[in-house]
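Q: Please design a sequence for this.
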């Protein structure tokens, strides 16, 4: 049994060719979602006033007008398998804006001198927010003794993408992403608490079948996703991270905490592609503030309709942009 909220079953697109089906990326009609969580609280580490101030500062730091941003949108080969997603209304512009926001915060002097410190705080905040999205506790106990299993799982996965470990993780990801996903799945499972060679640890990293997809079908979909990660597409890294994020949420390939795995994988895409090379952005905080919208958009991705895909990608990219504001707050405090 899985212990995290999922995404609901969604209707197919009535046989019409959707961007997902044209790209070879399976859509959500065969997904294995099981419903949404409806909590309304959010993770907020700064006041609304401070958040607004930082958003304004981020816009000023970009130093680009809307016209110039539009002109700088890169073209994508129409034959690219993910070109239909790039061409969805508003997606290309949102991807460019998110990238500029992240680039700007990387130039903050604290991030130039102490990026290991700011990067560590980003990963920690992201892990706490991701655990809360998964139905776990968001606060670290004062004594440091984490007893909530979902928060503990998120922290174990976060160790794999911490500044100390991200270099090696990213290198493996670029050539063998399924190997990294298996490690995420192990760390996200109860077996991740142990270091023995138990059968539970061996099984934790393998896809598990459900009433919608067999384990073999999920394995095949992971191979397709891995092809995109390793170079089958030249789509903007922000859109690729949205696809990886959404597809793992929809597919739910592993037994435990697939949401934590999906969000960590989307972070890893941003780092390994150079979109966010130091892992400073904290998009998870934005997604918790918009929790209901997040799960609704994930259901839209699962539907594989153009509008559903568009709304998911835009929400994901808005998270990246807002995550840069959160990162600026971290850097200001260092």
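A: Design:
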């Amino acid at each position: 049994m899985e212990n995290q909220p999922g995404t609901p079953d969604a209707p197919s697109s009535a046989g019409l060719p959707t961007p997902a089906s044209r790209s070879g990326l399976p859509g959500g009609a065969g997904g294995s979602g099981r419903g949404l969580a409806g909590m309304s609280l959010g993770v907020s580490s700064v006041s609304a006033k401070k958040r607004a101030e930082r958003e304004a500062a981020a816009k000023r730091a970009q130093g680009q007008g809307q016209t110039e941003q539009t002109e700088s949108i890169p073209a994508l080969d129409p034959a690219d398998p993910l070109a239909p997603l790039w061409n969805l209304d508003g997606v290309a512009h949102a991807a460019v804006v998110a990238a500029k926001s992240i680039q700007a915060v990387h130039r903050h002097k604290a991030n130039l001198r102490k990026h290991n410190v700011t990067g560590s705080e980003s990963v920690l905040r992201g892990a706490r927010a991701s655990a809360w999205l998964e139905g776990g506790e968001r606060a670290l106990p004062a004594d440091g003794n984490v007893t909530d299993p979902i928060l503990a799982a998120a922290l174990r996965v976060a160790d794999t993408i911490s500044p100390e470990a991200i270099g090696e993780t990213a290198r493996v990801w670029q050539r063998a992403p399924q190997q990294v996903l298996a490690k995420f799945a192990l760390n996200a499972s109860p077996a991740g608490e142990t270091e023995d060679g138990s059968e539970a640890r061996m099984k934790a990293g393998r896809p598990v079948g459900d009433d919608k997809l067999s384990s073999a079908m999920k394995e095949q979909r992971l191979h397709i996703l891995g092809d995109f990660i390793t170079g089958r597409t030249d789509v903007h890294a922000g859109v690729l991270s949205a696809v990886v994020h959404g597809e793992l949420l929809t597919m739910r390939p592993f037994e435990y905490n697939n949401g934590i795995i999906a969000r960590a994988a989307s972070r890893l895409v941003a780092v390994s592609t150079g979109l966010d090379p130091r892992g400073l952005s904290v998009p998870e905080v934005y997604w918790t503030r918009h929790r209901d919208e997040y799960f609704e958009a994930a259901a839209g991705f699962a539907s594989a309709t153009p509008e559903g895909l568009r709304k998911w990608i835009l929400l994901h990219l808005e998270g990246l942009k807002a995550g840069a504001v959160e990162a600026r707050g971290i850097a200001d405090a260092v």
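Q: Thanks. Anything notable?
A: The two ends are 42 Å apart (CA to CA). DSSP finds 17 helices and no strands in the chain.
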